[in-house]
Amino acid sequence: MSHYQYQGENLLCEDLEIESITNEIETPFYCYSLRSLRDNINKYKENLKNTNSKICFALKANSNLEIVKIIAEEGLGADVVSIGELQKALRAGISAKNIVFSGVGKTESEIEFAIKNNCFQINAESISEIKKINEISGNLNIKQNIGIRINPDVRPDTHSKITTGSIENKFGVPIKDVKELFIQSNLFENINFKGLAFHIGSQIMKLEPFEEACKITNQLIKEVESNGFTIKTVDVGGGIGIDENEKFQFKKYFNLINSYFAKKDRTIIFEPGRTIIGNTSILVSKILYIKETEDKIFVVIDAGMNDFMRPALYGATHEILPILQCDTKKNKVIEFVGPICETSDKFLTLDSFQKINEGDFIAISNTGAYGSSMSSNYNIRPNIAEILVNKNKFLAIRKRQNLEELISE
Predict the structure, then answer these.
(1) Which residues belong to CATH 3.20.20.10 in the chain?
(2) Domain with CATH 2.40.37.10 in the chain
(3) Topology, domain 34-276
(4) Which of 78, 214, 253, 254 lies deepest, with the highest CB count within 10 Å?
(5) What is the CATH number of domain 4-32+278-408?
């Protein structure tokens, strides 16, 4: 989180003290750094400037309209998994020629909308879906490009709930069926069989699973092209993880992808989500109560699992920072928990933390990905505000949901 740092005792986002924002915006709220967002985008642009590639931001990671507009202004495309995400990408100014429609359960109306709007590529996940796309394309008299998402049966070292590339997962077409699909492609006269796609999971911090998937896909490409077909697009998905130390070897990753798939007349599609938006944001929350028991200290904050689901859902670890730091420590097990009536509504357990008081503010780090986008109204709690910091000023990019409207629905 390079643009979040302490100046004296104060935690800053870029050049703005977080504490000053709490004077105007009710907690909890998401706080994004514009500089961080642009730095992350430029990391991809710089590494891919001499390649034939598309960078398609995964809207499932964060679909705030103002964030997506900035991403559109930076020239990125979008990876979408629903008609809502597709419509939001278009509204934000992303061209349909730079949108890839993924997802295992697209409805007929979603497929029809994508085709009518000239979606660059639909990633198909089953033979049944390919038949449905062909049927709808025929009815519309529009020939649609598809990428066949393969299941390479790769098992990365990540949480079981965010693996997507092993044979036990619901995603993709088994390798053994893909070659036969190309051979029978003349049966699907309304679609172009031009691409292959894979995505093996999320929060992956090692290169080896990506290389394994690349080897398998590259071998498949050779076999398909030996039968007279040409693979024009290879969608390598996303899945790169983030951590506090930013250990992932991006340069080696891009070199790896290019070594397997780069070709003059072929486009490589990247679908980053977390690596674009994850470290741009913190979730700012207020300490409501401090409850000390014999074994530990419970710190009850006003953010709940409905606001930020990842720790409860995946057991994800996100560092917690004080908005005002001090040198005094409390050496006892301390657990940061939310107000939701679920035992799983907890964020982090530590052996010690600095001295804190009721009414103080804390920040949960790296919440830009799958924070806002996975939030809910559980316990009839309003969706929280989101603000964007640019240097020493901030802009509200999403207002806190009105409680009266919420209870009227």
Answers:
(1) 34-276
(2) 4-32+278-408
(3) TIM Barrel (3.20.20)
(4) 78
(5) 2.40.37.10
- Band the pLDDT of 169: cuts 50, 70, 90: low
pLDDT at 164: 43
The overall average pLDDT reported for the chain is: 93
Question: Residue range 70-76: average pLDDT?
Answer: 98
Note whether 301 and 285 are within 8 A (CB).
yes
pTM to 2 decimal places: 0.93
The two structure tokens encoding residue 91: 């509204």
Per the annotation, the verdict on 56 as an active-site residue is no
Give the active site residue among 13, 56, 214, 341: 341
